[in-house]
Each structure stands twice: as C-alpha cells, then as structure tokens.
Amino acid sequence: MKPVIQLERTGCGIASVATIAGLSYAKAKSVANALGISAQDESLWSDTSHVRKLLGHFGIKTSRREVLFRSWETLPDLALLSIKWHLEKGRPHWHWVIFVRDRGRSCVLDSKRGLRTHRRTDFGRMRPKWYIPITGVVDNQID
C-alpha cells in the first residue's frame, strides 16, 4: 500500500480512502464529490459516515462499528484509525490514518502533507482513540 497525500487541510478522510482503494487523491476526491462528500466539509473530521460511504462505493467493507483502541498489538491487520482526537466547540474532531500490518511489520500511513515520511512507526507519539476494522480489501502489503 502506498500512502496518498491529502491535498486539502480537511482531506485526510479522502486520502485514507484513496490509499486503501489504490487510487490517486484526485480520483477519490472526484468520486467523493459525486457522492456529495466534500473535503471542505469539516464533518469529515467528526463523522464516520462519509468515509464509510466512500469506502463502500469502492467495494471496501468495514466493521459496522468503531472499536475502542486498546493497544497496537490488538489492532487488525488493516484499520482506519482516529488520532489527534479532540473537542472543538463541543464536537469531536480527529485525523484519519491507516494502520497496516504485513509479514510481521507494522506502520501507520499518514496523509498529512508536511510530514517527512508518510510511513510512520513512531507509535508512542500517536494516540489513537478508536478504529474501524477494514474487512474487505484484497492487498494490504506494505510497499
């Protein structure tokens, strides 16, 4: 899996779906817009329905519920994680990233544009709140 970089400040959800689906950011954004999903909509940070809808459009299955993060070891081999969880004006916000485990190696694919590397292994610095298991993807190999 190759990380896709978000091209907009609020585009982490679209970039995460693009990464999982193996698409460019532009293609995922185009499909998202056609489905009524916009990177300018801040609810992408505080609602899971948009990324679930976009993932579903590409035939990618997810668990129906979010699972509270307990440890890196207990994560499934592929999951959409919420990190940087916080409240703004009483509404939850987070940053979407992807956890991948392949052949004994694990990393987080982070779409944030300003990072030096988008394959993160600094697990102690990230503070996931919960995750959505991805249950229907063919290839989750770490490139």
Mean pLDDT: 89
The count of strands amounts to 6
Name the structural class.
alpha+beta
First-last Cα distance: 6 Å
Strand order of the largest sheet: 1-6-2-3-4-5
Major β-sheet, in short? 6 strands, antiparallel
**Residue windows where pLDDT falls under 50 for at least 5 positions:** none
Percent helix: 10-25%
Percentage of residues in DSSP E strands:
25-35%
Written description of the protein model:
The chain is an alpha+beta fold and 143 residues long. 20% of the residues lie in helices and 25% in strands. The chain contains 3 helices and 6 strands. The chain has helices at residues 12-21, 25-34, 49-57; strands at 67-68, 78-88, 91-102, 105-109, 119-120, 130-133. α1 (12-21) crosses α2 (25-34) and α1 packs parallel to α3. The radius of gyration is 14 Å and the shape is globular.
